[in-house]
Write a structure and sequence with these properties.
Blueprint: E1 2-13, E2 17-29, E3 35-38, E4 48-50, E5 55-58, E6 62-66, E7 72-85, H1 98-109, E8 119-125, E9 132-137, E10 143-152, H2 154-167, E11 176-185, H3 187-195, E12 199-202, H4 205-208
Parallel strand pairs: 10-11, 11-12
Antiparallel strand pairs: 1-2, 1-7, 2-3, 3-4, 5-6, 6-7, 8-9, 9-10
Helix pairs in contact: 2-3
């Protein structure tokens, strides 16, 4: 990971246009190519970022980040205060909690939960940027990449987007469609998923386990 602290301006163009006036910020460049700009505050969320895959061109006073979706991020460096790089090795990843791991097992055993005619190809399908929870085929034979969460939030949708961009480079799989499945999906995650062409599925944990709820249902 490369960490640069610099006085800079940032301009983004793509789904919308955004400008950050000159200030001291932290620029992070991760091993997978993700570029994120942080302020000294605002918790974990960057002020702006470009997820991998992308192309980064670094000149002495200007960095340009572009991708195949036509997005563009320009960082103009007025003064570099610090520039360091660290080899962080391979991260083992976040261990799933019991419910989330079991959800993956249950959906793998009953892929028709996602849609009639869906069949499982493989669990934990490996890629260079991490394993996809489930790789499936729909009733028409099209490839589905499925990300399963207990609670569906924006980060999970962005994670699935990165997998989709990678998988769609493989002619044997493309076109690959995304399915974001969770017990609960936040409204912001639904909006982002719809914008990226990803289908959302709400999972009923008890129903998957064969437990019938006594609660009245309105059909």
């Amino acid at each position: 990971m490369r960490l640069v602290i610099a006085r800079c301006t940032v301009d983004y163009s793509g789904r919308l246009d955004a400008h950050l006036p000159e200030a001291v910020r932290l620029i992070m460049v991760k091993a997978d190519g993700c570029v994120a700009i942080h302020a000294d505050g605002g918790a974990y969320k960057p002020l702006n970022w470009m997820n991998a895959p992308n192309r980064l061109v670094c000149e002495p006073d200007l960095w340009r980040v572009t991708n195949d979706r036509g997005e563009r991020l320009e960082i103009r460096l007025a003064e570099v205060l610090s520039d360091t790089a660290h080899d962080m090795g391979i991260d083992p990843g976040l261990e799933r909690d019991g419910v989330e791991a079991h959800l993956q097992e249950l959906v793998a055993a009953h892929p028709e939960t996602l849609a009639d005619g869906t069949v499982l190809v493989r669990r934990e399908y490996p890629t260079d940027i991490g394993p996809v929870d489930l790789l499936c085929r729909d009733r028409d034979g099209a490839t589905l990449a499925v990300e399963i969460k207990r609670r569906g939030e924006i980060d999970g949708v962005e994670q699935l987007c990165r997998y989709l961009e990678y998988l769609n480079r493989d002619a044997r799989l493309a076109p690959v469609n995304g399915v974001f499945a969770a017990q609960e999906i936040k409204p912001q995650a639904r909006v982002l998923a719809a914008d990226r062409g990803i289908r959302c599925v709400v999972l009923d944990y008890d129903e998957l386990r064969g437990i019938t709820s006594d609660a009245l249902r309105l059909f």
